[in-house]
Amino acid sequence: xxxxxxxxxxxxxxxxxxxxxxxxxxxxxxxxxxxxxxxxxxxxxxxxxxxxxxxxxxxxxxxxxxxxxxxxxxxxxxxxxxxxxxxxxxxxxxxxxxxxxxxxxxxxxxxxxxxxxxxxxxxxxxxxxxxxxxxxxxxxxxxxxxxxxxxxxxxxxxxxxxxxxxxxxxxxxxxxxxxxxxxxxxxxxxxxxxxxxxxxxxxxxxxxx
Length: 209
Prior knowledge:
alpha/beta
């Protein structure tokens, strides 16, 4: 039977995936875009150095997860739409990165179990509250699922803003990429309040553009 990658065990975030993810995000994507697309990171002092949290950013391109891991200097296991696992290369690459497949229409038990398990690993959880790519800053379709996960895992949310990273913008020697990291949003039992806080935090990060 072919694995569907909707759930991962803590033991899967092992030395191999740690090294592979670190090298991929830092020495491949991070170094390349720093040298050739003027990638800059602001707000690294806001990233908790220890402990579990959820890093939630806007979503503008396929390289966003790599940029975020490079920016926060923490390993993040990303939730990815299940369609990305349909090709052999996609499954292999995402598997090596520790990503796991999710249903974007609803929050499933397997997703919750994986998130809870990640708390035991030293990694953090990465996701995109908008669910799909939004290059115009639209916040009308933010899912409450990420706040529900934060509530269940009793985790803070780290807001991250990505700009200048669309395929059209990241041209070698012409790009002006930037990642801005906000202050962590404290855990709250009210999921709608956490959603509102994240949207507000992203608006504040936008003011610095």
